[in-house]
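Field log, afternoon session.

UNIT: design team B
ACTIVITY: writing a sequence onto a fixed backbone
BACKBONE:
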């Protein structure tokens, strides 16, 4: 089993409040969840109104499939006009990896 995750650090456009932030971040999370059937959540920068850290996780039987899915999600997020993708950090581990 392969587990992959990616964290997106995003800058939101003309957002002046946490309420406006939610109106941008919630649809992004919902669309990633709907389109890719993955676990996704806002995981950081919760108190900042122009920044968000969004995490996405995938479980797959092969590393190649996990990487392909994470690549697709990254392209999808990067292409969203309402946000600027500042960075994307990812990790891929096998359930048989010894720490």
């Amino acid at each position: 089993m392969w587990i992959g995750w990616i964290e997106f650090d995003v800058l939101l456009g003309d957002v002046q409040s946490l309420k406006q932030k939610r109106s941008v971040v919630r649809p992004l999370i919902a669309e990633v969840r709907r389109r890719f059937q993955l676990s996704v959540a806002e995981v950081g920068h919760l108190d900042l109104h122009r920044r968000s850290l969004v995490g996405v996780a995938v479980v797959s039987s092969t590393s190649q499939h996990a990487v392909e899915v994470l690549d697709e999600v990254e392209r999808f997020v990067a292409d969203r006009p309402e946000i600027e993708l500042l960075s994307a950090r990812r990790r891929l581990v096998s359930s048989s990896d010894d720490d």
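LOG NOTE: The helical segments are 18-36, 63-78.
NEXT ACTIVITY: expression trials, pending approval
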